[in-house]
Amino acid sequence: MGLREYIIRRLILLIPVALGVIVLIFALLQVVPPTRRVFVFLSGNPRELNPEVLKSYIHMYGLDQPVWVQFAVWLNQLLHGNLGFSEITGPVLENLLRRAPATIEIVIYSAPLIILIGIWAGVNAAVKRDKPFDHVSRVLSVLGTSMPSFFFGIALSAIFIATLKWTGTGRLSPNLDSHLTTLRGLGQWHDYTNMVTIDALLNGRLDYFIDGLKHLVLPVTVLVFINTATLVRVARSSMLEALSKTYIIAARAKGLSQKEVVYKHARRNALIPVVTLAGLIVGGMMTGLVITETVFQFPGLGSWAAYAAQRFDVPVVAAYALFSAIVFVLANLIVDILYAYIDPRIRLG
Amino acid sequence: MKFKVPERLQPTIREIKFILRRIKDTPLSLFGIAIVMFFVVIAAFAPLLAPPVPGLNPYLIPSDPALGFRVEPSPPSPKHPFGTTLLQRDIYYGCIWGTRWAFQVALEVIIPIVAIGVVLGLIAGYYGGVIDEILMRFTDIILAFPGLILAMCLVTVLTQANWTTIDSVLLSIVLIGWPGYTRLIRGETLRVRNEDYIEAARASGASDLRIMFRHILPNTIYSIIIVASLDFGGIVLTTAALSFLGLGAPTGWADWGRLIYDGMSFVSGGLRWWWSWVYPGVFISLFVLGWSLLGDALRDVLDPLYRRK
Amino acid sequence: MEKAVSDEIIRVEDLYLNFYTYEGVVKALDGVSLDIKRGEILGVVGETGCGKSVTSLSILKIVVPPGKIEGGRIKFNVKGKTYNILEFNEPTMSRVRGRYISMVFQEPRAALNPVYSVGDQIGEVFYLHRKEEIIKAVIEQLKREIETAKGFRKRVSRLYLSLYEGMLKNPKSLRVRLASKVPIVRRFRNLMKKEVRKRTVELLRTLRIPDPERVVDMYPHELSGGMAQRCVIAMALVANPILLIADEPTTNLDVTVQAQILVLIRELQKKFGSTILYITHDLGVVAELCDRVAVMYAGNVVEIADVMTLFKEPLHPYTQGLLESIPRPGKPFTSIPGVVPSLINPPPGCRFNERCKYAMDICWKQKPPLVEADKEHYVACHLYSGGK
Q1: Based on the domain organization, do A305 and A199 belong to the same domain?
Q2: CA of B234: which chain A residue's CA is closest?
Q3: Chain A residues within an 8 Å CB radius of C62
Q4: Chain A: residue nearest B300 by CA?
Q5: What ipTM is given for this predicted complex?
């Protein structure tokens, strides 16, 4: 089939899914009565509007019209960047963009750790099967999949934040955070990426870098622990399967040492399904982020969505769901392409 | 007391014996079974272990008037073995009845999910073609949302439409869960569909329905059992997460996640009020652990059998 | 079998091997003894499960757990000295495998790693066992290049030359290792790669693979069974081994392809002078290809003889039964009654006793030793060992 055809095929299959995702969100929104649903279109605070104006908005956005008209209107608004106004946090799109860097920062630190540790642990557990390393990593991965992330997070929070006072909630210590406004005013701090650790390095402030890092340690630990668990199990079983293949014995019969066989031959084959899973895990991290950010009061997208959900704030939750789905679908696409590229059986048809 | 086992069941009996023996050989699986049994016993004997207040819904945790309606939790004492949480609600009671609640929720969710999955999966796998494609697109769409988030969305939306939180949680989890089983059973159906005995059955005039339910379905049972036992824990984890976010059981309900939600307010005290969140957390972890181990054990045992078939 | 003949390459003596499984201990090899003479093609025949594959894996010491060798010796005569393979440590075995003894497997596409091209996999053996030769060839090439080149090219070639000479003297030297990692400098290795590729193509051509320049870059799944098997054979012959073990190499191939491969093997044997241990369950192949044959049953060698003798005068009842069950027109179908015994609980004495029509009392009490019943014709049967 060839790589190009494969990619085109995947892209084509993507379209109905993307469409379906949008339709699903729309369908969910339809369940909400129009008086509240109209918030998805507003650009100002609904509380400040009197009921008559609200009614006119309802009419303007066609919420009293048949379903397909509503869909067209909504889609149109969406494409113009109008995600609505949340009663609690303000303009949705603006908030999304404002809070995204915090989440991205967590992901930048977590994702590579998850992938590297997961693969390393899984491969080694398979190679040292039934030895102490294997048992320990299996126990840890079972714990990681059973223990609720919020429990782990709360435990860490109670120990390291409340008791040892080693770090705090949020992204920066309160004093450094308030000092930041002053720095900005003085022109001594520029927000290049809005990510604390990176900006700190770019602005040459080591103290902010370390403080930001300290605040990232606990959330990242929770995310890494929980997500690595699944990856380790899959990596291990994939490696075990690769090690049982005939070409492994054939490779040894050629004179390769056990170590060379494991790392040159088995691992590459084992990693093929693992890489795809790793991509999916990272793409699906949005779920873990909701809980982890809430526990550590990290001002990112996850806590924003959680806060909104608690108060039944429809526009925000819908926006977050749409965003997560898009991220996940993109991650799937990238992973599929990667898979086809690595495995010559697919690449060359 | 000896009774004759009918000839037809002999191979099944042998297989069950083999399964039991294999389970006995792995200590980890025994551990898992022990944990699950432990929870089953607790759930079954909840009214005895933590007698409910007459007239009150047993799932509502009673407060202790003797301690007043103070917000701060009280430490464990003989009257309150696990201590109390917000508004002096007894944590021990919450954990015990929380066990029963966990089983109730899990069953109320798993049964519809498996049923839908079986029907749709068989149809998709057996008939293939357009029906299959359409169903697969549907599952793709739902699976495009990372689990919890769609559930959050659904709960938010349904409560706006005046559903109770509990009902919306149950429905949400069913709605995010059915695609998984549909795909699983579809996969199994595809695998089995081309086997010779299906051809034979068709050649001897069996109807489609009969083939699906009498021939294909029994071969998928093992996979269903394995995934379902793993999911038993997973569903409880998801409901706990939703409760933790405030989207699950209402305040005062005997739900482990809700108890942790209540206990969250006291985390700032560090380990001072540890009992308010440690006990429910341990219960959740053990519950999920037990079912995970059981599911894994079943997979180790049933899989080779499975491939032998 | 006490004579220590100097033209023997391998002598397996009383090899015992067990598999420790869930269901019990499988006594797969029960005192296997055979010898392989220099330059011959020795066939090993037997049904599935008789232990022929496992014996060959033992010779290479690549038995996978839960299998474990529990006793015996495998004598290996090379360069005038005799060694016991079972006493070799792993690093030594790595030098033996592929270089002195190599193996061809049953399912060719399974024996090749799907994510590497066949050229890469054959080339791997060059790097493992003929690296010095390659480096020397590259050095010669560089020396010639330096004489004719000018300016920049000359300087680069000189640099490369020094790196290669360094590799020859001390492959683990820091200088060489560093150079192999630095991005542009590490291109010096390309000369080596080209040389290896050249030789790989030559080898493929020797194996009568059409269009070897193209095949060398192909992946295993792109090749037909026959082509893949030729590549596997090429891989086994790179270092010109003394002994080539072929474990049912043609079983999974079409009959026509099978014939081609057999012809090829005969040719290669003459050309390279290798000794071949050919494992198969197909008596027809044995008749066509082998010089001598060893018959195995349920973990024992029951008869060894040269091909003509075995087919004309089989001594062991099992061999007789095997030959008789070959279908021939006009002859009614016969087969050996009974089934192969369980190797977890084998019967006492001779393992063939349940199915043997000549079974005597002693066959249930004592295992028959392998004795020389006639010149160079060995049998393990109480009919010939005089109840000693």
Answers
A1: yes
A2: A146
A3: 249, 252-253
A4: A237
A5: 0.83
User: What's the length of chain C?
Assistant: 388
Together in a domain, A244 and A326: no
What is the domain partition of chain B in residue ranges? 24-307
Measured CA to CA in angstroms, residue A28 lies from A72, A141, C275 at distances of: 15, 36, 75
- Residues in C closer than 8 angstroms to A247, CB to CB, are 110-114
From C98, C107, C117, residue closest to A254, measured CB to CB: C98
For residue C84, report the phi and psi dihedrals to the nearest 5 degrees.
-105, 110
Q: Report d(CA A167, CA A157) in Å as an integer.
A: 9
What are the tokens at C185?
């400098």
Cβ of B160 and A33 within 8 Å? yes
Pairwise CB contact (< 8 Å): A145 & B246: no
Of the candidates A174, A182, A176, A187, which has an alpha carbon nearest to the alpha carbon of residue A209?
Answer: A176
Record: contact A324-B264, CB cut-off 8 A: no
Same-domain pairing of A71 and A146: no
| CATH homologous superfamily of B24-307 | MetI-like (1.10.3720.10)
C361: pLDDT strictly greater than 70: yes
Which two tokens mark B212?
């699906």
Report DSSP letters for C72-87, one per residue. Answer: EEEEEEETTEEEEGGG
Tens-digit pLDDT profile for residues C183-215: 777 787 888 899 999 999 999 998 889 999 999
Quote the pLDDT of residue C231: 92
| A201 shares a domain with A329 | no
Residues with Cβ < 8 Å from A287, sequence gap 6 or more? A324, B146, B147, B148, B149
Question: CA B251 → CA A309, B86, B269, distances in Å?
Answer: 16, 10, 21
Question: Which residues in chain B show pLDDT less than 50?
Answer: 1, 306-309
A310: closest chain B residue by CA: B246
In order of A227, A343, A346, B146, the CA distances from A339 in angstroms are 21, 6, 8, 21
The pLDDT of residue A269 is above 50: yes
- Whether residue B270 and residue A162 make contact (CB cut-off 8 A), yes or no, is yes
Under an 8 A CB cutoff, do A148 and B289 touch?
A: no
Rounded to a whole number of angstroms, the distance from the CA of C277 to the nearest CA of chain A is 15
Work out whether the CA dihedral B281, B284, B286, B289 comes out positive or negative: negative
d(CA C380, CA C388): 12
What is the residue range of A339's domain? 1-88+311-349
Please, which residues have CB within 8 angstroms of residue A32's CB and are 6 or more apart in sequence? A314, B157, B160, B161
Q: What's A240's domain CATH number?
A: 1.10.3720.10
pTM exceeds 0.95, yes or no: no
Q: Which of A127, A130, A241, A254 to mutate to test the interface with C (most CBs of C within 10 A)?
A: A254
- Give the start-end residues of each E strand in chain A: 85-86, 90-91
**Tally of structural domains, chain A:** 2
Q: What residue ranges do the domains of chain C occupy?
A: 116-243
Give the DSSP H or E segment for A49: none
Please judge whether C219 and A348 are an interchain contact, meaning their C-beta atoms are less than 8 angstroms apart.
yes
Q: What whole-number distance in Å separates Cα of residue C138 and Cα of residue C143?
A: 9
Element (H, E) at B254: none
Confidence of residue C232 (pLDDT cuts 50, 70, 90): very high
Minimal C-alpha gap between C91 and chain A (Å): 7
Do A123 and A189 share a domain, yes or no?
Answer: yes
| pLDDT tens, position by position, B226-260 | 889 888 888 999 999 998 888 888 888 888 988 88
| A287/B148 Cβ within 8 A | yes
Same domain, A46 and A187: no
Q: Which residues of C touch A246 (CB under 8 A)?
A: 105, 107, 110-111
- Rounded to an integer, what distance in angstroms lies between the CA atom of residue A289 and that of residue A97? 16
Answer yes or no: do C115 and A348 touch at CB < 8 A.
no
